Amino acid sequence: MSASPWLVVPAAGQGRRMGTDRPKQYLTLDARPVMAHTLTRLHAAFPGARLCLCLDPDDAWFDPDWVPFADWRRVAGGAERADSVANALGAIAGEARDDDLVLVHDVARPCVDVEDLRRLLQVLADDAVGGLLAAPVADTMKRDDGAGRVALTEPRAGLWHALTPQGFRYGLLTQALRQAAASGVTVTDEASAVEALGHAPRLVPGRRDNLKITHPEDLALAGMILAAQASAYSETTPEGVAER
């Protein structure tokens, strides 16, 4: 296994639920695009990682100056997230070893904590399957009846919110996505594809402020989270120490 992980960042989505003139990864957050914030966080935790950035072939918004990684490549994104990840795995097929760790992170999660990222890598270093950042469900969970009314209340004990990054061995993740595609199974994250092979990914507790920007109000919330994180970091960092 290589000492440095591979990073895959799917960023080919159009973000139509945001109702804006550009994909959500290019919306401005604290004077910088969301994508730039996300890549900066990943680089702070994994400066030696090798990045596959999955972009729409016709993307006219992307600026390579936002990428802080020395070793990175642009990969054509697919129609769905799983297609983009599969394209990235195919692009590194001649370089990656089966036991190399591949971390997949949503481009729309710019608030992921650097210490969470480092802890995830440490926990998964010796895990044969892999796992994901996740947070235990805190809210009461309701299942609807299909007509806008509550059918039942789901017990929240043992329920987790799946976050990213999600990290798995190159060989296993490649097999899982190929099997899902061959079976016509729709997977919304890498963990579900690996689960379909009969494996049990590791749940690694992460901070609840690892927000995924999906709806218009999420952008303002992400801005507040970044400001709060910066304030908390400055209060605990000795004078003269560079900000991470």
TrEMBL record:
Function: Catalyzes the formation of 4-diphosphocytidyl-2-C-methyl-D-erythritol from CTP and 2-C-methyl-D-erythritol 4-phosphate (MEP).
Key words, A-Z: Isoprene biosynthesis, Nucleotidyltransferase, Transferase
Residue stretches spanning the membrane: none
Similarity field: Belongs to the IspD/TarI cytidylyltransferase family. IspD subfamily.
Pfam families reported in the protein's UniProt record: IspD (PF01128)
Record-annotated site: Positions MEP for the nucleophilic attack: 156, 212
GO MF annotation terms: 2-C-methyl-D-erythritol 4-phosphate cytidylyltransferase activity
Reaction(s) catalysed (UniProt annotation): 2-C-methyl-D-erythritol 4-phosphate + CTP + H(+) = 4-CDP-2-C-methyl-D-erythritol + diphosphate
Protein name: 2-C-methyl-D-erythritol 4-phosphate cytidylyltransferase
The protein's enzyme class: transferase
EC number: 2.7.7.60
PROSITE patterns the UniProt entry points to: ISPD
Feature type site, description Transition state stabilizer: 17, 24
Pathway named in the protein's UniProt entry: Isoprenoid biosynthesis; isopentenyl diphosphate biosynthesis via DXP pathway; isopentenyl diphosphate from 1-deoxy-D-xylulose 5-phosphate: step 2/6
PANTHER family on file: 2-C-METHYL-D-ERYTHRITOL 4-PHOSPHATE CYTIDYLYLTRANSFERASE, CHLOROPLASTIC
Listed InterPro entries: IspD, IspD/TarI, IspD/TarI_cytidylyltransf_bact, ISPD_synthase_CS, Nucleotide-diphossugar_trans
